[in-house]
Specification:
The structure holds 2 protein chains of 2 kinds. In chain A, strand 9 and strand 10 form a beta hairpin. Helix content of chain A is about 45%, strand content about 15%. Chain A is an alpha+beta fold. The chains are: A alpha+beta, B alpha+beta. Chains A and B meet through helix 10, helix 11 and helix 12 of A and strand 6, strand 9, helix 9, helix 10 and helix 11 of B.
Amino acid sequence: MNNSVLDKAQQLREAVRHFYRNEMPAGLRDKSHRHQVLDKQDYLQWMQLLDQKGWAVGHWPKEHGGQEWSLLERFVFEDELARLGCPWVIPFGVKYVGPVIYTFGSDEQKRRFLPGIVKTEEFWAQGYSEPNAGSDLAGLRTRAIRDGDDYVVNGQKVWTTYAQWADWLFCLVRTSTEGKPQSGISFLLIDMRSKGVTVKPISTMDGYHHVNEVWLEDVRVPAAHLVGEEGAGWTYAKFLLKNERTAGAIVGQARHVLDRLTLYARETQVNGEPLINQPLMRNRIGEFELRFLALEVASYDAVMAMLEERDNGGEASLVKIRGTELYQEVTDALLDAMGEAAMVFDPAALHTADGLPPLGPQDTGGILKEHFYNRANTIFGGSSEVQRNIIAKVVLGL
Amino acid sequence: MTTDLETIGMLRDSLERYAADNYAFNDRLGMLKDSSGYNEKVWNDLAEFGFLTLRLPEDMDGLDGDANSVGALMEVVGKYLMQEPFLISGILSTTLVARLGDAGQRERLLQGLGSGQMLFSCSLEHADDCLLEDNRLSGRLDLVIHGDAAHGFLVAVRTGAGEIKLGLVNASAPGVQRNPCRLLDGRGAARVVLDNAEVELLDTPADGLSIEQHIDLLVDEANAALCAEACGMIDALLNTTNDYLKVRTQFGRPLATNQALQHRMADLYLLRQEAFALTRAAERAISQPAAERSRIVSGARAYISQAARKVANEAVQMHGGLGITEELNVSHFYRRIMLLNNLLGGRDQHFSRFVESSLGAA
C-alpha cells in the first residue's frame, strides 16, 4: 500500500478539522450543528467557503481547477465533514454534472459551465427520476425530439432536489424509443428559465421543502446543450452514478449521530444516574459501536479496492446498505432515549436561529427533521433493495 | 364487567362506518392547520354516540364497556388517524372521575365530560414534579396532550408523606400557565407551569383500592388502549402497502412479484397477527391481579412498539419516495407511531418492567 496516499488523506482530515474549528463562520456552524434549515444563501456561502479552500472540486483534474484527490482523500474529506456535522456538499454541480461535462462534454460546454460549477455561481439540479421510473430508471419517458437546432422536450421529473433554486437541470431524456430502453436515452442540459419549465414543490414529512416535481412542456433546448452523443446518455448516467456512490458521507453521518446518541446518554440523568449507565442503553450503544466498527473498516477496504482497481462492483452497495441502515437505527434509538421531548415538532421553528424546542436539548427539532428526511436514505441513490440486487447479480452472479 | 362480543362488534362497526364517511384522509391536512389539531364536529358526534361514556357504569349513565370495547374503538381511531381527545378525556378522565371522585364531584363533572362539553387532560407520570400544599399545587407538567385545549387537568402528585393523590386543576385558574405546542402528528399539547394553583382533590377511591393502585390500573388500561390504536395503524399500513406493491410496476412487472418483497410482507403479517393477539391479551389482563396485569400489558407494549416501528419503516421503504411525502397517509402513520412509542413509557421502559415482573427484581 502506498504510504503517501494514506499520509495525504490523513493530512486532509486534519485540515478539515482545523477549518471547522477555526475558520468556519460561527453562525453557519451553529445552524448546521443544530440541524436548522439552511437556505440558499447559507449553501452558497458554504460551497464558496469550500471553494476558497480548494475543496469544492478537490477530486477534479488539475486542468479544471481540482487537486486530483485520490479516492481515499475524497472519502476522508466527506467522512470528516459529516462526522463534524457540517452541511452537505451539494453534489449536483461539483460531484455529478461537472465530471460528466469535463469527461464527455464539448469544449464549448466546458468553457461555459465548469467555472460556474467550481464557484457555485450557478445552481444545478438533477432531472433523473420520473413518476414511473424510480429504481427502474431506464423506464424513463420524458421525450426529446429534434427540431432544427433544438430539442423539444416534454415530460415530468420528480424528487428533484432544490429545483426551486436551480439555474440549470441536467436531465435524462428519451431521444429514441427503438431498441433496448437504455439505448434511447440522452443527457441534456436545460436552462431552468426556459419557457415551459414548471417547478411544483413536494412537501415531505419533515415539513421542509427539499424536493419538487419538474414539468417540461414543449421546452426548447439548443442541441448544443446535448452532452456527448445522442443515445449515449445511459453511459454518462452510469458514470455519474459511480461518482454519486462515494461512501464517505454515509460513514461520517453514522458516526455523527452515534456520537450524538452517546453524548445524550452521558448528559441525561435518570434516577440520579447517567442514562448511559443503564444496562439496556449501554448494550444498545455497544451494539451500534460494534456495527460502526465493521462499517468503517469495510468501507475503508472498499475504497482501497477501488483505488487499487481490484473492486468487484459490490463495494459501494455494501457501504450504502450498512451505513444508511445503521444511521436510521441510531436515530431511532436517539429519539427513543429522548422520550417525551421527541414528541413535539414544529417545523417552522427550524427556520429561525432562536427557534428552541419546548423540551429537550437545543437540537431536538433538528434531530427530528433529520430523522424524518433521512428515511429516504435507504430509498434514493439506488434503494437498499437495488443495492442487494447489485450484489446478487454483479458479485454473486445469481 | 365483560362486554359481549356482539356489542363490541357493533361498537367497532358504528365508529368504522362513521369514520369512513366523515374522516377522509384528504380532509386531514386542512384539519391539522386548525388551532386544536382536531375536528370539533367529530368530537361532538363521538359524544352524541355515547362513546365518551363507554367506560362508565350504567348507574352513572354509561355504556359499561370493558377494556376490550375500548380497544375496538381505539383500533378505528388508529386506522383513521383520529385526532380527537377520545382516549385522554373521553376514557381516561371520565374513568378517573368515576373511580376517585365523590358523589358530588361525579354529579358535577361526568355530565360535562360525557357530553364532550368539558375536556380534561391527564398528567399521571410526573407525580414528583409537583408539590402539593394546602390544596395548592406548584410545579410543572411537562407535556400534557390536548393540554392546549383542555378545561381541566387531572394531576397525579406525590405528597411529602410519599402518598399519591389525584388533583383537578382548572385550566383557567390563577397560577396556571400553559405553553402550547404541537405534537408529531399535529395534535395540540401544552407544557403547564403551576404556581400555587388551586386544586380540588379527587379523594374517594372505590373498590377498596388505594388512589395509587387506581392510577396504576388506569395507566395499564391506557397502555392496552394504545396497543389497540397501534394495531389499527399496523393493519392500515399493511393493507396500503400490500395494495401498492400490486399496482406499482418497475422493471416491467409489479413489485409484488418480487419474492424478496413477498417474504418481507409475510414477516409484517406475522407481526400484525402477534400485535392483535397481544392486544387482546393485554385487555384481558386488565381484570387480573396487578403483578400479572402489568407484566402482560408492558410485554404487549414493548413487543408492539417494535412491531409498529418495523411496519412503519417497511411501509415507507416499500412506497419509495412517496412514503415520505405529506400527500400520502403512510408518513402520517409513521409519525403517529413514533409518537405512540413514547406515550406512557417507551419501549425500553416497558421491556424493563416486563423483565422485572417476569424474573423478579435483580
